[in-house]
Amino acid sequence: MLIRPKAGILDPQGVAVERALPALGFSGVANVNVGRLVELDLEDPEQLQAMCEKLLANPLVEDYEVQLLEESGHAGGNGRGS
Amino acid sequence: MKFGVLQFPGSCDEVDALQAARRVGDAELLWHGDESLQGVDAIVIPGGFSYGDYLRAGAIARFAPAMESVIAFAADGGLVLGICNGFQVLCEARLLPGALLVNANRRFTCRQVELEVVNGDTPFTRACTAGTRLSIPAKHSWGRFHAEQRTLQAIEDGGQVVLRYAPGHNFNGSARDIAGVCNERGNVFGLMPHPEHAIDELTGGSADGIKIFESMRTALEGARA
Amino acid sequence: MHPQPPSFDRPGAPAPQPSAEPIPTVEDALALGLTRSEYELLCEKQGAPPNAVELAMYSLLWSEHCAYKHSKKLLRTLPTQGEHVVMGPGENAGAVDLGGDLVCAFKVESHNHPSAVEPFQGAATGVGGIVRDIFAIGARPIAVLDSLRFGEPSGARARYLLDGAVSGIAHYGNSIGVPTVGGELYFEAPYEHNCLINAMALGLARRGDLVRSAAAGAGNALVLLGAATGRDGIGGASVLASSELGGGAAAQGEAAPEHDQDMRPTVQVGDPFEEKKLLECSLELLRSGLLVSLQDLGAAGLTSAAAEMAAKGRVGLEIDVARVPRREPGMAAWEVMVSESQERMLCVVEPADALAVLALCERWEIGGAVIGRVTDDGRLRVLAQGALVGDMPVSALVDECPLYDLDPRRPPAPLYPPPRATLAAEATPAAALLALLRSANISSRRPLYEQYDAIVQSRTVRRPEQADAAVLALPDGGGMAVSIDGNGRRVAADPYRGTVEAVLECAANLACAGAQPLGATNNLNFGSPEKASIAWQLGESVRALGDACRALGVPIVGGNVSLYNEGPTGPIYPTPVIGMVGRLPDVRRAGRLGFQRSGDEIALVGPFAPALPASELAKLRGEPLPDGLAALELEAVIAAQAAVREAVRANALASAHDIAEGGLAVALAECCLSGHLGAQVELGDELFARCGTQPGEPSASWCALFGEGPGGFLVSGPAQALSELGRCTSLVRLGTVGGGELRIALAGTRLSLSLDELGNAHASLGELFA
């Protein structure tokens, strides 16, 4: 789950990063948002939305986006796709 | 009367809240894992870093068994005071409108602030006079009060703005300088500054904070009369 | 997690298993930081070359950081006894008697090397570690102070380290509900590559509640509390703390940062939430009488905690690493033993109490596991799933590490380049005063201390910059004052006299708050003791520390040594840092630093003899360090401290402020700004006499205004009170409080600055915190 501040809400972390990048020589950067990443393995993907709404994000002030990665296998390799 | 002060893993100012409450009545700690509120007359959710502020401040604490009981207690009209982390828990639990976001300067700030009493008619502020000021210490990093414009207007119109930061004292960027709000019914109140730390001039910079607790006692005694 | 009763009952000791691992060579020992002769000695003590697990453990316990090889002999010369000492050096923390059955536990420790690599976590875990030392002896932590030193703030690196360290201290201290009530901050070029992060903590306990760390009772269970064990800080004590950052000859410019990058994975990460739960659980375990002894895990993790517990108790311990809760897969036995994962404590528990202990851990949501047992054979044995993988005599690990004599030699040439001049040669005294107030070593620390919760636990009576020391209320109406003070530049100029000055300054700060020092703790921060000039600095400084503490009657109850603080540009200034705790009988009368009332008289008290060499003004002017500082009148300074203290206690004074960096003019400005009141003063012949100059001499005014030295106090109060004070100590009337300006008249000239001008200059530190 990618959780980011809702558009229109002051994101001071994003502002600070946006200011710092040009000072390091990186130009042409705008709209920096700093959010949170939550990764987990779970058996029932149907639960995801409820988990986000109830605990992982605060829908009043945050938007979230769910990325379902591939099933991770137990035997050999991690099976994580992008 | 008896206050119940909730204690979560990570609560820090519960002992201070206990001390303040004991100035005006009895008080005991209520363990987060117990559903029973031990028959207390009012609830205080104290400051600190419940669950380390992990995920979001107050996000995990709001699901504690004790909080389920507090939600029911509030629905019945019981008095609930949330201080700092307690305010955050109440917003997460949707007992109060809005949310507390990271301070505009992104840093924890500990400073004595002046608050204007906007609504002196709540069970938490009856011992205060509207228009006067309280000198109370504030110390937090996630204290910027935020709500949608619609909500902000509604709480202003509904007299739910109880305390405002005096001009020049709003260090966290709270919308409309709002420092403390109550719910529509007026029985649940949250504020970011710490009244329990302003009960003695020697350690608190003023004794203005005790008025919050005195108001609650008066309200409860009145209710019984 | 189901509590398991301890199940180590086996007839006789486990049979040694043949090890499949190759025996490490002497080269392996050298790579881990041991010397050839140390390796040979330890082979002798083991009776055979140590295996990998044993070598790893010896390399840590015999490192400088753990064994104090180069400093222990010196430290033995320090005064450690006194009527108020309840617990002296050697335990997790020292403790002094506050009266009324209360004791104060306190100690200072450094986390210099980790903080230079990752300042946020380095400083945070520094706070975590020192706080654990406090509750490890059964005291509730009630305050933290920090002493920070970085390179010049004009450099980006110093600002990065400052910001990270302050954020880390704030994050950790605030989260565990312990107020950070004081500290100090300095910027000097020699700290550019070796910052200093010294953290001090205090705790309160009932005398009978203090617990020691000696393991006892063969058959008792060894229980590990707190966080799971991972690979944090692997090799920390030996790799990071005892070695110079940036490597030897190869490290110049680009090479150094890469080397530091490689060190990043070994930095420990702190979890203050876990610490808070661990703190509450530990105190409850102690209150319930469930623990025989308790020890926190710090440098070298389980290895040092277990070895020290066993050594103090003169017992043996057996640990099975398979029973240690781990959060990383595939950890080798040596990794479990040396891991520096934070927020863990080790305790000894009678077998009948083990279940109750584990149940309490579950209630507080922290880990708890029986990992071993106490034996009576004086050996530290490490098992992996029951198989013996390490077996060492405890005394060899802890008490028989070789100690070294230093080979001191006074440096023939200056060790430190002169500072860069930042003040124009033609600057007026007014401009110089503003430049000093604006300078990073003097400007208000408000942007820093506001990031700390200074009031949680409701004891704080004097918050930062309200008085010269922090003051906390005690239940009986009395108070505790605490200050942390160090010096680098003046100690570099004169290790002996500079150190005496630092000790005196700490006591002076307590006196201005109205407190009598009961005990002290010290952190010695120096370069490499294997270099003759550093050895000389260290020897002189420790000698001075002892002499000054003996003269003050203040014993040292614990402390820390951090050596090898050297980088590609040379050693740090020799920096002893002293923390003192004192008592005042009536906390309502705690001193204040700011002027309080218009009309109060202002006076200079004490044998203050200002001099410009090694002062902040001299630094701004880019002057090199002098070779030696002026002599000081120790007894007269101590007497003046006592006089000021008594006057504060008697409520006779409105304010009292120790004169330090920037001299008299800066002290006056600080008193004005703190009290929001101006002052009119005149510096006359008496002051010029103190400078050893005539009023007409060119340097005279500068010396009178900005000269530094010990034994100077700026006090204010009613004329009558000052007269009485003048009867018991030397007192020079200077002027009066009032108005909106600071006006200083001397030798026919005037200096006049408004409170606004002074305040603007004084507020400049905020620029360092973007």
Describe this protein's structure.
The complex is a heterotrimer of chains A (about 80), B (about 220) and C (about 775). Chain A is of the alpha+beta class. Chain A has 2 helices and 3 strands. Chain A has a 3-stranded antiparallel beta sheet, with no helix packed on it. Chain B has one domain: Rossmann fold, CATH 3.40.50.880. In chain B, helix 2 links the parallel strand 3 and strand 4. In chain B, strands 2-1-3-4-11-10-9-6-7 form a 9-stranded mixed beta sheet, sandwiched between helices. Chain B has a two-stranded antiparallel sheet with strand order 5-8. Chain B is globular and about 40 Å long. The longest helix of chain B is centred in the C-terminal third of the chain and has 15 residues. Chain C has 27 helices and 28 strands. The longest helix of chain C is centred in the C-terminal third of the chain and has 21 residues. Classes of the chains: A alpha+beta (about 80), B alpha/beta (about 220), C alpha+beta (about 775). Chains in contact: A-B, B-C. At the A-B interface, helix 1 of A face loops of B.
